[in-house]
Design goal:
Elements: H1 15-41, H2 47-100, E1 103-123, E2 129-132, E3 138-139, E4 142-143, E5 153-170, H3 172-223, H4 230-249, H5 253-307, H6 312-323, H7 332-348, H8 353-362
Antiparallel strand pairs: 1-2, 1-5, 3-4
Helix pairs in contact: 2-3, 2-5, 3-5, 4-5, 6-7
């Protein structure tokens, strides 16, 4: 309806128009009554609560974003750990190959004594055959061939023979590579320890963040139980699912597995919201039942009051209904109604003996 209705003159307008106006007017009255009834059932809420709700919801969205960010950091650290483990494995294999090559074959010449059928003058210091088949090798106190003192020479039926052989010697270049590889592996292992400590730290922070988000959800539900807080979580889960699909196309199996772990964190929150919503639905159902009973009582009371039929039987029936109303749904409002009915019966209606016993029982 609009203000044009007030420009209509009932005396001059056609009957059809007036019928339509009357119908619209009655419709408006019903709508206004429903509106006022609904408003009367609502609890008074301080407008400051809406500001608190807005602040908490902004904080809720921010915490979800921080949770996602922390999960991304955790994923990056786990990828780094995987990469370092691969590097350490490769470096260990390479070091093992270097270990096999740390010795090399080298030709070495050495002197051995071989027997002869004749005497020889040989030097014990320089392995020199100073004079074969002869004992005259000295010139004074020193040898003419090697210049060593005569005391270092012997006369025997042997002579020195030069021989070559291959021997294993340390390859110093390989040894340097092995030492470097060992140092690099130790460094990588230290890095792994640091990364694992970071992962443990991030996982604890994520668990703490989940608890903080759950507390926020409960606080917001206390202010506005009808709002669907799961939508924000659904959005985060949708983004993660899209990332999984994109990485699956790239066949990045490892990253897909890590994103699935992140997705589980948000599924846990979603499950918490769903369970909380189910619990609140039960509470809301109790309130709805109470409101229905309230409207029923008011409707019957109004009708009987108008028709002057407020008899004792009706009051007693209503009292019985209130008394046997489910205890978990028996609010202060119902208790107040019950008390008023009881007072009305005792004050204004003469009750017969039979009914007196019923009231005494209800008391």
């Amino acid at each position: 309806m609009n203000n044009e209705i007030f420009s209509i003159d009932p005396k001059t307008e056609e009957e059809t128009t007036m019928n339509e106006v009357n119908f619209l007017y009655e419709t408006l009255k019903k709508k206004m009554k429903n509106f006022l009834d609904t408003a009367s059932d609502m609890e008074i809420t301080d407008t400051g609560e809406f500001r608190k709700l807005k602040e908490k919801r902004d904080n809720f969205k921010n915490q979800l974003m921080l949770l996602q960010k922390k999960c991304n950091e955790l994923t990056e650290e786990k990828l780094r750990i995987s990469s370092v483990i691969t590097e350490v494995t490769q470096m260990t294999d390479q070091k093992q190959k270097l270990d096999l090559k740390k010795y090399k074959k080298q030709k070495r010449t050495h002197s051995e004594q071989e027997p002869t059928p004749y005497h020889n003058t040989i030097c014990c210091i320089c392995d020199s055959n100073c004079h074969e088949n002869c004992c005259a090798a000295m010139s004074g106190d020193h040898c003419k061939e090697c210049d060593h003192h005569y005391t270092s020479h012997v006369h025997m039926r042997v002579k020195w023979v030069k021989k070559e052989q291959l021997v294993d010697v340390l390859d110093m270049e390989q040894l340097k590579l092995i030492e470097k590889a060992s140092t690099d592996i130790d460094s990588k292992n230290q890095l792994l320890q640091s990364l694992n400590a970071t992962v443990d730290k991030y996982e604890k922070e994520i668990a703490s963040k989940q608890t903080e988000i759950k507390d926020l959800i409960i606080q917001m539900k206390d202010i506005c139980s009808d709002f669907n807080y799961a939508k924000e979580i659904d959005l985060s889960m949708k983004i993660l699912q899209e990332r999984i699909e994109a990485e699956q196309v790239k066949k990045n199996t490892e990253l897909v597995g890590l994103i699935h772990i992140t997705l589980e964190y948000f599924k846990t929150l979603k499950s918490f919201v769903d369970q909380l919503g189910f619990s609140l639905t039960k509470t809301q159902k109790k309130t709805e039942n109470e409101n229905i009973f309230h409207h029923q009582w008011m409707s019957e009371y109004s009708t009987k009051r108008q028709t002057m039929l407020l008899d004792e039987e009706w009051y007693i029936q209503m009292l019985i209904q209130f008394i046997y109303f489910p205890k978990e749904q028996f609010s202060y409002f119902l208790l107040q109604k019950c008390y008023l009915i009881k007072i009305h019966i005792q004050s204004n209606i003469k009750i017969k003996n039979k009914r007196t016993r019923k009231i005494s029982f209800l008391e």
